[in-house]
């Protein structure tokens, strides 16, 4: 999603007003041209006025009409009008400035957002239409040079933005893939740990005379380990990808405490709340996900909330699973070198990890000020309760 689409999604009413304003401005340009040329009414002037109205209406980004349909209609109408006027008697002045601006709006939208095939087809047609519209006059030199230059500039800039957007999408895909690989390796370690525990406990039960409460306790431990292993295996199957790499120990709640203590020594104080007894029932893969989210959130606080005076981290069980909330009261970014700022993909990786585990991650301004990150991890508890 580009910035314009993101702004429109966050402010739907303002987006409607902006679309209406764009259409009004373009139609006002066409009306001004028609009024200025009304003292010389003729069939060419009527054709240019009609084409201008159609093209301007096509430039307004309606949600229910696809962009490629509007662009195709505008290009066809404009090129047909230009061909008719250029092959017949050239009028002295027909202008078409509003129509040309609308064509440039469609050109930049097509080159930035349309699929490759549509952009490769409609882009040249819209560019030719932009160049042909000012050539309808008997003496087209004045407008042709201006709109020819604008067409080249708009095309180059739109292609540059398209290339940057494509690169960012590839970078985001790489971040998501790397995060899923890391999660798959962690889950692999958890499965191996639990299966090993099952084998050891089963062997102990086989070669040791157990009966009564002792046997029940042993089988309860085996059942618990098997449940944890199956839960991790289900997630592993969903996120595993080809490739192998060295693995590291999986972090958990003790590492979360150590992480917050280390952060507080060089940054703002951290208030950490972990629900009592959670260490005994939280799955290891969820604890690792919590550690990953806390680590990235604290890193972002150092970068983007240099004036923060306190950080609050809360971890508790809820009916839907485990809820993590990280909030700070900062508002000003730290003055870091450009290379130290990163590519802005930290939240992308976190969201991919949490989504792969079946959870939800949200980040945004907190109601009381500052910034807030919340993550919800489903657990076997909520699956069984449901």
Automatic annotation (TrEMBL):
Keywords: ATP-binding, Kinase, Membrane, Nucleotide-binding, Phosphoprotein, Transferase, Transmembrane, Transmembrane helix, Two-component regulatory system. GO terms for molecular function: ATP binding; phosphorelay sensor kinase activity; protein dimerization activity. This is histidine kinase. Its EC number is 2.7.13.3. GO terms for cellular component: membrane. Pfam families: HATPase_c, HisKA_3. The keyword Transferase applies. It comes from the Bacteria. Residues 288-380 form the Histidine kinase/HSP90-like ATPase domain. The chain crosses the membrane at residues 12-32, 44-62, 69-86, 141-160. InterPro entries: HATPase_C_sf (IPR036890), HATPase_dom (IPR003594), Sensor_HK_TwoCompSys (IPR050482), Sig_transdc_His_kin_sub3_dim/P (IPR011712). Residues 179-244 form the Signal transduction histidine kinase subgroup 3 dimerisation and phosphoacceptor domain. It catalyses: ATP + protein L-histidine = ADP + protein N-phospho-L-histidine. PANTHER family: NITRATE/NITRITE SENSOR PROTEIN NARX-RELATED, NITRATE_NITRITE SENSOR PROTEIN NARQ.
């Amino acid at each position: 999603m580009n910035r314009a689409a993101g702004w429109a999604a966050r402010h739907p009413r303002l987006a409607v007003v902006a679309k209406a304003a764009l259409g009004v401005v373009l139609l006002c340009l066409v009306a001004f041209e028609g009024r200025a040329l009304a003292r010389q009414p003729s069939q060419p002037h009527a054709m240019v006025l009609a084409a201008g109205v159609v093209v301007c209406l096509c430039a307004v980004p309606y949600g229910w009409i696809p962009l490629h349909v509007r662009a195709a209609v505008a290009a066809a109408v404009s090129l047909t009008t230009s061909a008719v006027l250029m092959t017949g008697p050239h009028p002295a002045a027909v202008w078409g400035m509003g129509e040309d601006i609308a064509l440039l709006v469609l050109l930049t939208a097509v080159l930035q957002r349309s699929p490759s095939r549509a952009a490769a087809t409609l882009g040249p047609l819209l560019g030719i239409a932009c160049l042909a519209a000012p050539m309808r006059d008997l003496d087209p030199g004045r407008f042709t040079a201006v709109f020819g230059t604008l067409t080249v500039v708009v095309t180059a800039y739109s292609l540059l933005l398209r290339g940057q957007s494509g690169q960012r999408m590839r970078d985001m895909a790489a971040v998501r893939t790397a995060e899923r690989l890391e999660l798959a390796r962690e889950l692999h370690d958890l499965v191996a740990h639990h299966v090993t525990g099952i084998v050891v406990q089963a062997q102990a039960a086989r070669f040791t005379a157990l009966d009564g409460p002792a046997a029940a306790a042993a089988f309860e431990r085996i059942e618990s380990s098997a449940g944890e292993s199956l839960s991790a295996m289900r997630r592993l199957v969903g996120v595993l990808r080809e490739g192998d790499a060295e693995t590291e120990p999986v972090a958990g709640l003790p590492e979360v405490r150590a992480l917050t203590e280390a952060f507080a020594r060089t940054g703002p104080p951290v208030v950490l709340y972990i629900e009592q007894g959670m260490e005994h029932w939280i799955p290891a893969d969820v604890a690792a996900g919590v550690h990953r989210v806390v680590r990235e959130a604290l890193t972002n606080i150092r970068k983007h909330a240099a004036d923060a005076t306190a950080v609050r981290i809360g971890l508790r069980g809820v009916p839907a699973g485990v809820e993590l909330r990280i909030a700070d009261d900062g508002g000003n970014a730290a003055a870091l070198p450009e290379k130290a700022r990163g590519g802005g993909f930290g939240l992308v990786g976190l969201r991919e990890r949490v989504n792969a585990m079946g959870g939800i991650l949200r980040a945004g301004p907190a109601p009381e000020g500052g910034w807030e990150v919340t993550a919800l991890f489903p657990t076997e508890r909520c699956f069984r309760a449901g």
